[in-house]
TrEMBL record:
Residues 97-119 have a biased composition (Basic residues). This is Peptide chain release factor 1. It comes from the Bacteria. It comes from Salegentibacter salinarum. Transmembrane segments: none annotated. The lineage of its organism: Bacteria, Pseudomonadati, Bacteroidota, Flavobacteriia, Flavobacteriales. NCBIfam families: PRK09256.1. One of its GO terms (biological process) is rescue of stalled ribosome. InterPro entries: Pep_chain_release_fac_I. Residues 95-133 are annotated as: Disordered. GO terms for molecular function: peptidyl-tRNA hydrolase activity; ribosome binding; translation release factor activity. It holds the Pfam family RF-1.
Amino acid sequence: MDEQQITRELSFKAVRSSGAGGQHVNKTSSKVELYFDLEASEGVSEEEKQRLIKKLDSRLTKENLLILHSEESRSQHKNKELVISKFFDLLRENIKKPKPRKKTKPSKAAKLKRLKAKKINAEKKARRNDPLK
């Protein structure tokens, strides 16, 4: 993953933020939306693209476009920094290769413990039966 190349591929759009803030909010575009085209990206290898498409499936559009936004701050520049850091955190988290699962068997002690518990439970249920039958 080439972060500098990816940064050049990002596109941004400033829009009006919602929520409290009075007149200031109504006339300034402080919310920042980040757009990243995963398919066309040259900063991500094909293997990483496939992994990201699989893991971020619910967050991607039909055209494999990732859209993130930030409206935490009243400053457009601060929101841009926040959305970029959020974006790279998301990429780093989802680009990791999953560890292969190591198959394990239950220990002898665990098997004996399970069988002992089964036996106690069976005896408990057997005592519930009507003794006259």
